[in-house]
Amino acid sequence: MRSLPNSWVCLYPQDDTATSKAVTLSPDNRGLAYADGFFTTMGVMDGLILWADYHRQRFISHADALQLDMDCEALLAVLKIYAQQLEQGMLKLVVTRAAQDIRGYGYAPSESGSACEIWLKPAVMRVSTAVQLSLPDGNLVPMQPNASAICLFSQIACLPPPLAGLKSLSRLDNVLASGELQRIKAEPLAANVKKSLSEGLLRDMSGHWVEGTMSNVFYQLADEPLCESETCSSGHKGVDNNHENYLTTAQWYTPSMDQSGVAGVMRQVIIDALSTTEYPVVIRSLSDEDLPRLTRLFFCNALRGIMPITSLTLLSGDIVDFQSA
Known about the structure:
This protein is of the alpha+beta class. It is built from six helices and 17 strands. The strands form four sheets. Strands 8, 9, 10, 11, 12, 15, 16 and 17 form an eight-stranded mixed sheet that branches. The protein is globular. Residues 224-241 have low confidence and may be disordered.
């Protein structure tokens, strides 16, 4: 079995030497020029792609939304071969529309207009599975250590229906938001900002809180506002902190992706897993008024699984404390 490349490879279109030499990205590539495409990042464990069926659905839905011609079944079969060789790590896939004869943004109303280029980068890395949470459907999800989060001033774009929720290549709003989070981490921390800061909560341009810089968000709410003081504490007695019951003992909400954000793979995994339980996930906007009423919150993505949050620093500097996972 041949060794995996340490750089990007072009899966399609591909000639006989494409896997044995460095592949050069043309400046005419529409992903580079116009962000005309999408990407997905897949965890690999024991030679298997995590949540492969969900990534397959992303291929299908994104190709349909962007009017790209992809053989999704054949693509997944190739990716599974790479996963077997990688054993442990990450596969990053980028799909772009093929270069067009038409100048500018437009693309041909023909087969050439929907043709695409498919790029892949395998990377060896350890997918943390020290603690795993069993979902109601029997699947296991990695559970990261407790951490803290902060509300960011950066905002993400509201998008038209064909684009909202897609993991498109146009991610400048997330780039700037991630930059803000890194600057906060690099600054001397104020006394009320915990050192375990790991993620930032983002609003869209309508003012609703939608997602993290690299993840989706789920939350629980108290029935009544919890405090009026500068520092809020939402810890409640009687909440079961057993990991096995973390997702099933109370109502979870997650913001809609209908106008902004990325409808992540792990987000859908959790929604589906809880769909037949006593508390199926409710799609609900998260507003400024809700933040002091939060009792639990976690971020999630397909690589890291669930990231439980123990405190959230608001834009005002106040802190909402949660039950730990």
